[in-house]
């Protein structure tokens, strides 16, 4: 995605206009303009110059983001607008106070004036003209941008303000000249003083500037989380050069450099410890408050803080390749993308300003037609122009997305896009990989059973030779045990790994095989005694690895993976939120069910090969929105296929790249936390959109005078400007409340979910073994047949496992289920 800075935008109509112009450029696939950060993200093959030309033609400015700018450079996020607006407001208020004293204080309440002015109405009028002109000059940007947009046929919020203020000023000037001519004819012209709207012309500008100031200040706070991350980046590093310590700017550190970290210092870049022992506080990146122990071979990350030890490290990632820079880029990219929920506001914003201008003209004409004075009709039209606020519509979504993604980053949950932040909160099903996600992914050997006539030492030796070539976590457990046991390493040839099944090699020119029961049965006979022992261990959640050599069974090694401490609590939270939990694993069904039972997961889809996980996810998507949580290379297709893919931060790089959300703490408890944060962000967006629409729906008719005869309500243009100023400020302030949201608090357990959970406890779940299902179409046939039976709430067939898991909400005869499957053309085993 190419990033651009856009200048000249003042409201949602501007961002909609820029998007429309850029999307029309040949080669542009998508364009997303963010009013909050005045940025634009463009995907496609279009040339930068063509994109910039389209923005300029639409009446705005654009520059590409500098590629050599550091990711941790926060100058772009520096609040440069607030000081400018503050100066403008102060100068405007000085002139406005004098103007209000003259126009209202003297005329309405009789406040004293110098003798030269007290009875000279023309002098008072001329002074009001000069004071209001001064305020207009100070706030000239409204007129420049507003009328520029009108000329370019791209009216915006500034156009409404400029038209309202100009109309009030021009009519007041006209009334002043009428007074001068009347005075020349012998009349005092005092009656024309009541037709002056100089104070309205100036007050509108001052109030809008006040609103812009408050909005700018609040908008600055929405990027606090991102600025906080950028400020964590160390500015210098101490490297070893020619055997001596040398402090250099962080930009000069290169990959492969040796750097040292003294006690209490921040780690400058990502690296690997080559000497030393210390504890490192990684809370800046992961949110985890407990320091992590680091020794030789461990990874350290930029912006984390060294404890009391001394570390010597080798740099492995610098600049924008560091973990901190990637996190900052993810948060920035999330803010640059647009959530689907924003589309409604975008459509309205595109036609909002022209519609308001038309309504203002119609308002003036109608009031003139019914016999009101020109001044009264003009006041109503001005009120319509200045009360209408497209800005609130444009800010409703991006401010909430920025704060929500920032909150996630602070808690170790990284949303890559606004779409993923929105979709996460609408989750119905959470699918979890077993190894490394629910479990620690650090299995240990628990049992070794040898076949008749085979010595334990021989089984371990040959298993070690085979598993030493594999990178699977289960293989690591066998290798670790063998090393501790003290067996010697044996050379093998022609090694190959069969995904989801096992390992194959040659030892002394004879076949050596390791793997699961189904795979090993192809190479040797397994007696019943061994099978019974293996089944008992699988029932307790252990994974059994069989080994055979030269078509003779050697025995099996049982390996057990430990469940993460927070897995059970996380699954319980998901159930309480009314979310269905599913374990998806390539492990055998008995082991998977034992792990699932310990973790509190009710549904298991086991024995699925890596290429089958994607089809399972696609099938589950037919039943609701699916979140897939995984950590391995084999999970990447499923992560991509799911509505939202969540990767464990400690997982493989390909899984992290494929995912939409990254859980930096590598804890399953962050899944319900991410869902809560997404729900809270969605709720804030809905609130913002509701108030933005309601404000305009009520405000415009009120300003037009629709309630004057009905309720006696009449709006002064100055009050309209004040309302407009506060509308945007209120939307931004409402989004800032997300900063105080506790993502760990179980706040989204509503009554319906609790009732749903109580009903679920009364449900029955049975598994039926089926023969004959060959593809997802077969699954669909079986599903349709079973769910047609009264009492069957849900049926989840799996052609990979040759089974269907059926959920019943009342008692149903098993024979009836079997009959439905048989009638569908399949066989019940």
Would you give an account of this structure?
By secondary structure, the chain is an alpha+beta fold. Helix content is 50%, strand content 19%. It is built from 31 helices and 30 strands. The strands form 6 sheets. It has a 7-stranded mixed β-sheet with strand order 14-26-25-24-15-22-23, sandwiched between helices. A 6-stranded antiparallel β-sheet has the order 6-5-7-13-8-11, with no helix packed on it. Strand 5 and strand 6 form a beta hairpin.
Overall geometry comes to elongated
Summing up helix and strand content along with how strands pair, one would put the structural category as alpha+beta
Tell me the strand percentage band.
Answer: 15-25%
How much is the radius of gyration in Å? 35 Å
Strand tally: 30
Major β-sheet strand ordering: 14-26-25-24-15-22-23
What is the compact description of this entry?
Mean pLDDT is 80; it is low at 748-761.
């Amino acid at each position: 995605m190419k990033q651009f800075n856009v200048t000249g935008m003042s409201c949602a109509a501007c961002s909609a206009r820029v998007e429309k112009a850029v999307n029309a450029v040949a080669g542009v696939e998508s364009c997303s303009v963010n009013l909050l950060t005045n940025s634009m993200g463009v995907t496609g093959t279009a040339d930068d110059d063509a994109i910039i030309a389209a923005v300029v033609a639409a009446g705005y400015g654009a520059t590409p983001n500098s590629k050599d700018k550091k990711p941790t450079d926060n100058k772009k996020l520096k609040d440069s607008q607030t000081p400018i607006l503050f100066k403008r407001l102060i100068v405007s208020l000085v002139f406005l106070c004098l103007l209000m004293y003259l126009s209202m204080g003297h005329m309405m309440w009789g406040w004293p004036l110098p003798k030269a002015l007290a009875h000279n109405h023309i002098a008072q009028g001329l002074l009001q003209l000069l004071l209001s002109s001064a305020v207009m000059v100070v706030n000239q940007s409204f007129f420049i941008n507003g009328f520029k947009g009108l000329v370019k046929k791209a009216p915006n919020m500034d156009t409404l303000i400029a038209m309202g203020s100009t109309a009030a000023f021009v009519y007041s000037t006209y009334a002043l000249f009428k007074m001068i001519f009347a005075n020349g004819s012998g009349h005092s012209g005092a009656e024309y003083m009541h037709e002056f709207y100089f104070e309205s012309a100036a007050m509108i500008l001052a109030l809008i500037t006040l609103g812009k100031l408050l909005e700018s200040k609040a908008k600055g706070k929405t990027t606090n989380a991102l600025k906080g991350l950028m400020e964590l980046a160390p500015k210098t590093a101490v490297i070893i050069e020619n055997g001596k310590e040398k402090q250099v700017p962080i930009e000069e550190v290169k990959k492969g450099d040796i750097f040292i970290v003294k006690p209490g210092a921040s780690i400058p870049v990502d690296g690997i410890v080559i000497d030393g022992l210390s504890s490192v506080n990684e809370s800046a990146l992961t949110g985890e408050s407990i320091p992590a122990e680091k020794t030789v071979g461990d990874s350290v990350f930029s912006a984390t803080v060294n404890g009391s030890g001394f570390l010597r490290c080798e740099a492995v990632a610098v600049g924008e390749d560091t973990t901190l820079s990637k996190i900052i880029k993810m948060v920035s990219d999330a803010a640059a993308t647009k959530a689907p929920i924003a589309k409604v506001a975008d459509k309205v914003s595109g036609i909002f300003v022209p519609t308001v201008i038309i309504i203002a003209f119609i308002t003036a004409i109608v009031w003139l037609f019914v016999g009101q004075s020109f001044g009264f009709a003009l006041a109503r039209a001005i009120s319509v122009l200045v009360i209408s606020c497209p800005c609130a519509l444009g800010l409703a979504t991006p401010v909430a997305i920025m704060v929500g993604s920032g909150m996630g980053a602070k808690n170790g949950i990284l949303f890559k896009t606004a779409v993923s932040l929105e979709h996460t909160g609408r989750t119905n099903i959470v699918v979890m990989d077993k190894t490394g996600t629910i479990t620690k992914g650090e299995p240990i050997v628990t049992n070794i059973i040898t076949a008749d006539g085979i010595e334990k030492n021989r089984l371990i030796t040959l298993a070690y030779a085979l598993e030493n070539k594999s990178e699977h976590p289960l293989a690591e457990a066998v290798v670790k045990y063998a090393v501790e046991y003290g067996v010697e390493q044996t050379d093998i040839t022609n090694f190959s790994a069969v995904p989801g099944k096992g390992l194959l090699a040659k030892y002394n020119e004879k076949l050596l095989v390791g793997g699961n029961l189904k795979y090993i049965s192809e190479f040797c006979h397994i007696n019943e005694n061994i099978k019974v022992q293996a089944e008992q261990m699988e029932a307790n959640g252990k994974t059994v690895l069989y080994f055979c050599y030269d078509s003779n069974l050697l025995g099996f090694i049982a390996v057990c993976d430990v469940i993460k401490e927070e897995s059970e609590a996380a699954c319980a939270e998901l159930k309480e939120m009314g979310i269905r939990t599913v374990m998806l694993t390539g492990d055998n069904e008995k082991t998977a069910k034992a792990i699932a039972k310990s973790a509190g997961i009710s549904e298991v889809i086991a024995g699925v090969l890596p290429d089958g996980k994607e089809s399972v996810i696609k099938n589950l998507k037919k039943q609701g929105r699916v979140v897939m949580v995984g950590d391995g290379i084999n999970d990447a297709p499923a992560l991509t296929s799911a509505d939202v893919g969540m990767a464990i931060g400690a997982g493989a790089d390909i899984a992290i790249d494929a995912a939409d959300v990254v859980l930096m703490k590598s804890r399953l408890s962050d899944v319900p936390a991410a869902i809560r944060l997404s729900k809270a962000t969605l709720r804030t967006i809905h609130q913002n959109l509701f108030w933005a629409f309601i404000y305009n729906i009520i405000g415009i008719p009120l300003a037009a005078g629709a309630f004057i005869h009905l309720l006696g309500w009449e709006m002064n243009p100055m009050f309209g400007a004040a309302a407009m100023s506060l509308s945007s400020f209120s939307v931004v302030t409402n989004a800032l409340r997300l900063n105080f949201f506790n993502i760990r608090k179980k706040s989204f357990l509503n009554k319906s979910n609790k009732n749903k959970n109580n009903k679920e406890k009364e449900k029955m779940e049975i598994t039926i073994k089926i023969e004959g299902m060959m593809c997802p179409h077969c699954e669909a046939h079986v599903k349709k047949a079973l769910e047609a039976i009264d009492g069957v709430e849900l049926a989840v067939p799996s052609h990979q496992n040759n089974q269907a898991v059926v959920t019943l909400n009342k008692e149903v005869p098993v024979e009836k289920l079997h009959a439905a499957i048989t009638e569908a053309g399949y066989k019940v085993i």
